[in-house]
Every structure is written in structure tokens, then in C-alpha cells.
Design a protein that fits this description.
The protein has helices at residues 4-30, 44-67, 71-99, 110-140, 144-175. The termini are far apart. The protein is mainly α and 178 residues long. It is globular and about 50 Å long. It has one domain (4-175): Four Helix Bundle (Hemerythrin (Met), subunit A), CATH 1.20.120.
């Protein structure tokens, strides 16, 4: 049953999620890339991949902690996964601000594989933001039944998006030579 507070929280989550999505769409497809005069921006994809890999590990450890009924460890690990995902988003935005979109130029069988991973990653990352916020909202409000219900949907998507984020980086590093 939805409470009035739930409805307000869901509205805020929806507004923030739409704002993030619109901003990212504009950043990647609507804004011209700035020119990074420093070499530091070229390191951000590796940082992003490391943050995604760290998130993956934290998610798996958080899942195993709650399965073992270790709630305090679960909370710490899931908040850490949220933090690394947030840091990823900041780094991702910074990179795209300075460098723009990265084109995949490789050809052959690897190209459709890359784009299948990329498209599924993007499509699943869109609902992920409101799903994570909703899952956290219920946890913070100690509504553990709703939290558990939402987490069962959020966890596999979050895990998939973090793993495919690493794979996208690997594909770009291994195959994207012009």
C-alpha cells in the first residue's frame, strides 16, 4: 500500500531520474565536446571502468552479506556500491563534457557484439537510476518488505549495467583502433 510519503518520494525520484536522463542525453548527443587541454581527461574511461568493476564487486558482496543475514555489512556494502556508482556518474559526465562521445570504429564480428552490449547497457541503465533510488528509499524508511521486493528487481539490472560498463571499456581498448 502506498502512503502519501511514498507518493511524494516516488514523484521526486521520477523528477530527478528524468532530469538525469535528459541531462545525459543532451551531454552526449546535443552538446559539442569541449577540448581537454590536459592529458588527465584521457584517463577517465579507465577510472570509469575501475568504478564499475568496484561496484560489481560491492554488489556481489552486498548480496552475499544479506543472504548470510549480515545486515550491517550489507548496508555498508550497498551504500559503498551506491557511492562508487555516483562517482562513476560524475566521472562519466566529466569525460563526456571534455571529450564528447566515443565512436566505435572496429569492424567485423566484434562490431555487432559490441553494439548489442552497448545498447542493452544503455537501455537497462535508464530505469536503473529510479530503481536504485526507490530501493534505497524503502531501506532508509525501514520498509523492508518493499525494499526486498524492489531490490530483487534492481540487483540483477544494476549488476548487469556495472559488468557491461567494464566490458564496453575493454572492447574500446582492445578493438577501437583507427
Amino acid at each position: 500500500m502506498k502512503t502519501n510519503n511514498d507518493s511524494k518520494a516516488y514523484a521526486v525520484i521520477a523528477l530527478v531520474s528524468v532530469a538525469v536522463l535528459l541531462f545525459l542525453t543532451w551531454l552526449i548527443y546535443g552538446k559539442e565536446a569541449g577540448v581537454a587541454h590536459d592529458h588527465w581527461a584521457s584517463w577517465l574511461p579507465a577510472v570509469n571502468s575501475l568504478l564499475n568493476a568496484t561496484t560489481t564487486i560491492l554488489l556481489i558482496l552486498g548480496y552475499t552479506a544479506i543472504r548470510a543475514k549480515n545486515k550491517q555489512r550489507h548496508i555498508k556494502l550497498m551504500l559503498s556500491a551506491t557511492l562508487t556508482s555516483g562517482l562513476f556518474l560524475v566521472s562519466y559526465i566529466t569525460y563526456h563534457h571534455f571529450q564528447g562521445d566515443t565512436k566505435f570504429v572496429a569492424e567485423g564480428v566484434v562490431r555487432p557484439i559490441y553494439f548489442a552490449i552497448l545498447i542493452s547497457h544503455i537501455v537497462l541503465s535508464i530505469p536503473l537510476v529510479p530503481m536504485v533510488f526507490t530501493t534505497l528509499y524503502h531501506a532508509f524508511n525501514k520498509n523492508y518488505e518493499k525494499h526486498k521486493w524492489m531490490a530483487k528487481k534492481t540487483f540483477p539490472i544494476w549488476l548487469y549495467v556495472s559488468v557491461t560498463g567494464v566490458l564496453i571499456y575493454v572492447f574500446l581498448k582492445l578493438f577501437n583502433h583507427s
